[in-house]
Design a protein that fits this description.
mainly alpha; 0% strand
C-alpha cells in the first residue's frame, strides 16, 4: 500500500509538474511570440526608415539634377545674349567705319576740286595777265599746300579701307 500511495504521490507530483511545465512552455512560447512580434515591428520600422532615407536621397539627387540643368540653361542663354551683343557691336563698328570712309572720300574730292579751281584760276589769270608775280607765288603755294593735304587725306582713306 505504501507503494501505491507512493506511486499516487509520484503520479500527482508528476501531473502537477507536467502541468507547470506546460504553463511555463506556454509562457516561453508567448514570450517568444511577443519577442518575434517586437522584432518584426522593429524590422518594419527600420525598413520604413531605410525606404524614407532612400526616397529622400532620390529626391535630393533629382533636385540637384534639375538645378544643374537650370544653371546650364542660364549659362547658355547668357552666352547667346553675349554673342548677340558682340554681333551688334561689330555691326555698329562696321557702320561707323563705312560712314568714316564715305566722309573721307568726300574730303578727298573736296580737296581735289579746290586744287582744280586754284589751278584753273592760276592758268586763266596768268594768261590774261591779271596776276602779279607775288599773287602767282601765293596761288602756287596754296596749290602745293592743297596737294599735301590731298596726300594726307588719301593716306587716311587708305587706312580706313584697309580696316574694312
Amino acid at each position: 500500500m505504501k507503494k501505491i500511495v507512493l506511486a499516487g504521490m509520484l503520479l500527482a507530483f508528476s501531473a502537477t509538474s507536467l502541468f507547470a511545465q506546460e504553463q511555463e512552455t506556454e509562457k516561453v512560447e508567448n514570450a517568444k511570440t511577443t519577442e518575434e512580434v517586437l522584432k518584426a515591428e522593429e524590422n518594419a520600422k527600420l525598413e520604413a526608415a531605410a525606404k524614407a532615407e532612400e526616397a529622400a536621397k532620390l529626391a535630393e539627387k533629382e533636385a540637384k539634377k534639375l538645378e544643374k540643368e537650370q544653371k546650364a540653361a542660364e549659362k547658355k542663354a547668357k552666352k547667346e545674349a553675349k554673342e548677340i551683343k558682340k554681333k551688334e557691336k561689330e555691326a555698329k563698328k562696321a557702320a561707323k567705319l563705312k560712314s568714316a570712309i564715305a566722309k573721307q572720300e568726300r574730303n578727298v574730292s573736296k580737296v581735289e576740286r579746290k586744287i582744280t579751281k586754284l589751278e584753273n584760276k592760276l592758268s586763266l589769270d596768268t594768261a590774261a595777265g591779271k596776276l602779279s608775280p607775288v599773287a602767282t607765288e601765293k596761288l602756287k603755294s596754296s596749290i602745293a599746300k592743297q596737294k599735301l593735304k590731298l596726300v594726307k587725306e588719301n593716306v587716311k582713306l587708305n587706312k580706313l579701307e584697309r580696316k574694312q
